[in-house]
């Protein structure tokens, strides 16, 4: 009795899938693109993360700014790099459905802003946007500057070497910045890169990347039979436990302060977490789970992106000395001869030339080279935070060191590991600036 019903259901599902695929295909009929192999399209062309960037770029070169391709039996994609088209998509309040790739992050991030869509995304986006008002950002500058001082100090070990990779230093720096800004605690990653939490962040990011190019791991049903699934479960336990314990501790502290026992009057800056704990939607506070998801989302989105942008900007400055000199002139105008001075919000606002350098570097080396929508909304979110953090860090380094090309000169080998990176490192050389 059950078997015929089951067969009938499976058969209907197949017919329905086929119908949907055909209906979509007719929409793509007049758009050029690679055909790949029958049924699977171009699914097997991406063998490593290195290929993804090379292959997608080559499609754009061959077919133009709007390209279509089939990846696997059921999914057809539009690869868009046309500015007008993108503007239209990004300013739409309707095209906000995230593509299925975002489910990979859901183990860690649940449905925080990055992975949420529909009504949840709209309400959370509305309540979280004020957290990035400049008055709130202003208090984070202290964090940027403090962590930047440690980075400048760590660079001392590399003075005079012909070539060194800046990325590992910068990524620990941005992890320190984001942890303190978002959770209000210091993980001290720059001094303790072996901490369980820091390691788990690194591991899970690596797993995301590997999964995004492995057909076996992409499949929800097969994934539990792979090694990465178990490695992910282990990392998730540590990551969630850490975030939950930070939330619990902060909740207790806020509660104490509310009742007038302010045990820690020195802590005047409010981490992002406080806003989450205080916020209410229609009078109802966010659940522990919702808070954890947003904290983890900002931890993920906010550290690797800025690490990539800061590193590529420093690399570009090292390889364009005339631009570096002009940037240093601007620093001198703002700070005079004072090298160790802490930048204030107004100082960072005045670094117009440095801002242009960062933007040009992001154009050449976009931290997030591509992302997906199921046929979004604006991406202004972490922009102001990121710009202030990048200026604070780069300004500090520029005032202290002269950046030089690595010897022999380092050619980047760009790869998209969700975030744009260089598989052979981002190498420069530094000298003290006197
Ligand atoms: C140079 C630095 C950065 C770049 C290039 C960048 C780029 C992007 C891009 C392209 C997206 C859209 C991704 C998608 O929808 O798949 C995004 C989303 C997001 N970013 Fe960033 N980001 C940067 C820094 C940051 C920072 C520092 C934070 C946090 C403090 C942050 C928080 C977020 C969040 C929460 C989202 C999801 C927003 C939403 O869907 O409403 N980003 N970012
Ligand atoms: C981290 O290391 C730097 C120098 O390498 C040092 O100046 C700083 O005080 C250390 N910070 C902590 C919290 O241990
Ligand atoms: C590094 O962090 C771990 C816990 O994550 C801690 O046990 C260890 O003492 C820390 N080491 C230093 C040098 O602070
Ligand atoms: C179509 C295309 O550009 N395919 C290339 C994808 O990347 C691999 C590795 O770099 C190349 O061998 C393919 O030719």
TrEMBL record:
Instruction: List, in alphabetical order, the Gene Ontology terms for molecular function in this entry.
Output: heme binding; iron ion binding; monooxygenase activity; oxidoreductase activity, acting on paired donors, with incorporation or reduction of molecular oxygen
Q: Which InterPro entries match?
A: Cyt_P450, Cyt_P450_E_grp-I, Cyt_P450_sf, Cytochrome_P450_Monoox
This protein's UniProt keywords = Heme, Iron, Metal-binding, Monooxygenase, Oxidoreductase, Signal
Q: Where are the transmembrane segments?
A: none
Signal peptide: which range, if any? 1-17
Q: Which Gene3D superfamilies match?
A: Cytochrome P450
SUPFAM superfamilies given for it? Cytochrome P450 (SSF48264)
Q: Name one Pfam family in it.
A: p450
This protein's cofactor list reads: heme
User: Which family is this sequence assigned to?
Assistant: Belongs to the cytochrome P450 family.
Task: Please report the name of this protein according to its UniProt entry.
Answer: Cytochrome P450-like protein
Question: Which source organism?
Answer: Tribolium castaneum (Red flour beetle)
Q: Which gene encodes it?
A: AUGUSTUS-3.0.2_13681
């Amino acid at each position: 009795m059950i078997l015929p019903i089951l067969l009938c259901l499976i058969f209907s599902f197949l017919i329905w899938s086929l119908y949907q695929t055909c209906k979509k295909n007719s929409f793509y009929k007049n758009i050029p693109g690679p055909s790949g192999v029958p049924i699977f399209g171009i699914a097997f062309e991406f063998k490593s993360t290195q290929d993804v960037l090379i292959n997608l770029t080559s499609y754009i070169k061959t077919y133009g700014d709007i390209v279509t391709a089939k990846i696997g039996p059921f999914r057809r994609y539009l690869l868009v790099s046309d500015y007008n088209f993108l503007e239209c998509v990004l300013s739409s309040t309707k095209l906000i459905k995230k593509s299925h790739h975002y489910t990979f992050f859901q183990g860690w991030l649940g449905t925080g802003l990055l992975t949420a869509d529909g009504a949840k995304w709209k309400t959370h986006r509305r309540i979280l946007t004020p957290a990035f008002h400049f008055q709130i950002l202003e208090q984070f500058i202290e964090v940027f500057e403090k962590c930047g001082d440690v980075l400048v100090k760590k660079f001392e070990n590399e003075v005079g070497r012909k070539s060194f990779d800046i990325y590992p230093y910068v990524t620990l720096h941005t992890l320190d910045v984001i942890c303190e800004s978002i959770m209000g605690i210091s993980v001290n990653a720059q001094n303790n890169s072996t901490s369980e939490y820091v390691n788990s962040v690194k591991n899970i990011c690596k797993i995301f990347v590997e999964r995004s190019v492995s057909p076996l791991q992409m499949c929800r049903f097969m994934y539990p039979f792979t090694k990465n699934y178990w490695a992910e479960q282990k990392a998730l336990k540590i990551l969630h436990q850490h975030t939950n314990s930070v939330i619990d501790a902060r909740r207790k502290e806020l509660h104490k302060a509310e009742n007038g026992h302010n045990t820690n009057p020195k802590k005047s800056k409010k981490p992002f977490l406080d806003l989450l704990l205080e916020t209410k939607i229609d009078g109802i506070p966010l659940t522990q789970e919702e808070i954890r998801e947003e904290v983890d989302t900002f931890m993920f989105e906010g550290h690797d992106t800025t690490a990539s942008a800061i590193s590529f900007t420093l690399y570009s400055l090292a390889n364009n000395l005339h631009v570096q000199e002009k940037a240093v002139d601007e620093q001198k105008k703002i700070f005079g001869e004072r090298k160790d001075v802490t930048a204030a919000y107004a100082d960072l606002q005045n670094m117009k030339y440095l801002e242009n350098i960062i933007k040009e570097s992001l154009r050449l080396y976009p931290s997030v080279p591509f992302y997906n929508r199921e046929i979004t909304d604006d991406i202004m979110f972490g922009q102001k935070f990121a710009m202030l953090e990048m200026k604070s860090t780069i300004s500090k380094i520029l005032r202290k060191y002269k950046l030089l090309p690595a010897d022999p000169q380092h050619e980047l080998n760009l790869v998209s590991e969700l975030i744009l990176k260089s598989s052979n490192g981002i190498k420069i050389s530094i000298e003290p600036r006197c």
